[in-house]
Automatic annotation (TrEMBL):
<dbReference type="Pfam" id="PF00155">
    <property type="entry name" value="Aminotran_1_2"/>
</dbReference>
<comment type="similarity">
    <text>Belongs to the class-II pyridoxal-phosphate-dependent aminotransferase family.</text>
</comment>
<dbReference type="InterPro" id="IPR004839">
    <property type="entry name" value="Aminotransferase_I/II_large"/>
</dbReference>
<dbReference type="InterPro" id="IPR015422">
    <property type="entry name" value="PyrdxlP-dep_Trfase_small"/>
</dbReference>
<keyword id="KW-0663">Pyridoxal phosphate</keyword>
<keyword id="KW-0808">Transferase</keyword>
<dbReference type="GO" id="GO:0005829">
    <property type="term" value="C:cytosol"/>
</dbReference>
<protein>
    <recommendedName>
        <fullName>2-amino-3-ketobutyrate coenzyme A ligase, mitochondrial</fullName>
        <ecNumber>2.3.1.29</ecNumber>
    </recommendedName>
</protein>
<dbReference type="GO" id="GO:0008890">
    <property type="term" value="F:glycine C-acetyltransferase activity"/>
</dbReference>
<feature type="domain" description="Aminotransferase class I/classII large">
    <location>
        <begin position="49"/>
        <end position="390"/>
    </location>
</feature>
<dbReference type="GO" id="GO:0005759">
    <property type="term" value="C:mitochondrial matrix"/>
</dbReference>
<dbReference type="InterPro" id="IPR015424">
    <property type="entry name" value="PyrdxlP-dep_Trfase"/>
</dbReference>
<keyword id="KW-0012">Acyltransferase</keyword>
<dbReference type="GO" id="GO:0030170">
    <property type="term" value="F:pyridoxal phosphate binding"/>
</dbReference>
<keyword id="KW-0809">Transit peptide</keyword>
<dbReference type="InterPro" id="IPR050087">
    <property type="entry name" value="AON_synthase_class-II"/>
</dbReference>
<dbReference type="InterPro" id="IPR015421">
    <property type="entry name" value="PyrdxlP-dep_Trfase_major"/>
</dbReference>
Length: 400
């Protein structure tokens, strides 16, 4: 019987995989044989590929000081903890990093997770009860959506960055004990930035708290790279921040929540992905800690990224392309047609430029695009080569 069940399962899985291929939404993974960085080597021979699709905004993933800090932490504190934090898994470096994160964001305390996905999975359930309400932007990241699914609060979804709709939902939610507005600080598909000033004003008017996911903002948005709240002047109005160590802050892995101390204390007691998952490995802690040191010493890296973003956006716009979002290193080149996005991305790779096309269901129908992500470690020449390749490929395929 178990043989028959296994055979049945295999047939079902194969048919599901076939459906994914048939729908044209199959995700294949290119294999990189070098470090993460602006120039990559790919398995199968591609060398000297210029990479425009990592979240390595500040280029710290392969920064020599970040790597050295990881090696030192590995040697001093070992490969890993073989334990969750509250049993036998808290080292001095975990406490130091939490203190540093809180200081960086000017918050009372911080708690580490294995990922920001886990931080988002843990917070809503630990904080909200059926007496409370959560109001979430419809385009929030999948991990926020999943985290909200896990909690028993009353759920409201407002239209993307639509303040009229948020206000209507806040009015409706007045009957609940506590209201939490949850939004990405910067949205990764469009490179657009949440209107946090307006969100915080509405939150004040309707007595709500504000939560932001800063995965695509921490380290580089705002004058000192603190994030969207700093950029928009509302650092004292946003109560809870979740973010990742796996993008701009060294890119190794890990996530966190930072905010009021009693909230962080409660998460240590109640948050399931924290309580029931292994501690962050020392090498990973070492990377993030060094990345934060570098950013707190100087904002030169973030400024260099901003200048390169500006160069790419203005040259592409001058060439006739439409780039979504504003002033963000996520630069979606809007093409509309799904096939056009996929064929152009392939053609870009054949010219040594690694970019990825996104189409439905990842983005709405008719809004296919190639997403370009700028990093502080791209040279001006890298950026110009990318624009040239886009111009050639765009002309060839009728996009210009
Ligand atoms: N939130 C947002 C907005 C993200 O883009 C991501 C990563 O893609 C995550 C959360 C998850 O972060 P992590 O990779 O640390 O799990």
């Amino acid at each position: 019987a178990s043989g028959a069940a296994a055979a049945q399962l295999r047939r079902r899985l194969e048919s599901e995989l076939e459906d994914i291929r048939g729908a044209g939404t199959w995700k294949s993974e290119r294999v990189i044989t070098s470090r993460q960085g602006p120039h990559l080597r790919l398995a199968g021979g591609g060398a000297g590929i210029i990479n425009f699709c990592a979240n390595n905004y500040l280029g710290l993933s392969s920064h020599p000081e970040v790597i050295r800090a990881a090696v030192e932490a590995l040697e001093k504190f070992g490969a890993g903890l073989s334990s969750v934090r509250f049993i036998c898994g808290t080292q001095s470096i975990h406490k130091d990093l939490e203190e540093k994160i809180a200081r960086f964001h000017q918050r009372e305390d911080a708690i580490l997770y294995a990922s920001c996905f886990d931080a988002n999975a843990g917070i809503f359930e630990a904080l909200l009860t059926p007496e409370d309400a959560v109001l979430s932007d419809e385009l929030n990241h999948a991990s926020i959506i999943d985290g909200i699914r896990l909690c028993k609060a009353n759920k409201y979804r407002y239209k993307h960055m639509d303040m009229q709709d948020l206000e209507a939902k806040l009015k409706e939610a007045q009957k609940h004990r506590l209201r939490l507005v949850a939004t990405d600080g910067a949205f990764s598909m469009d490179g657009d930035i949440a209107p946090l000033r307006e969100i915080c004003q509405l939150a004040q008017k309707y007595d709500a708290l504000v939560f932001i996911d800063e995965c695509h903002a921490t380290g580089f948005l705002g004058p000192n790279g603190r994030g969207t709240d700093e950029l928009l002047g509302v650092m004292d109005k946003v109560t809870i921040i979740n973010s990742t160590l796996g993008k701009a802050l060294g890119g190794a892995a890990g996530g966190y929540t930072t905010g009021p101390k009693p909230l962080i204390d409660l998460l240590r007691q109640r948050s399931r992905p924290y309580l029931f998952s292994n501690s962050l490995p020392p090498a990973v802690v070492g990377c993030a800690s060094k990345a934060l040191d570098l950013l707190m010493e100087s904002n030169a890296i973030a400024q260099s990224m901003a200048a390169k973003t500006q160069r790419f956006r203005s040259k592409m716009t001058a060439a006739g392309f439409t780039i979504s979002g504003k002033d963000h290193p996520i630069c979606p080149v809007m093409l509309g047609d799904a096939r056009l996005a996929s064929v152009m991305a392939e053609d870009m790779l054949s010219r040594g430029i690694y970019v990825i096309g996104f189409s439905y269901p990842v983005v709405p129908k008719g809004k296919a695009r190639i997403r370009v992500q700028i990093s502080a470690v791209h040279s001006d020449e890298d950026i110009d080569r990318c624009v040239e390749a886009f111009t050639e490929v765009g002309r060839k395929h009728g996009a210009l």
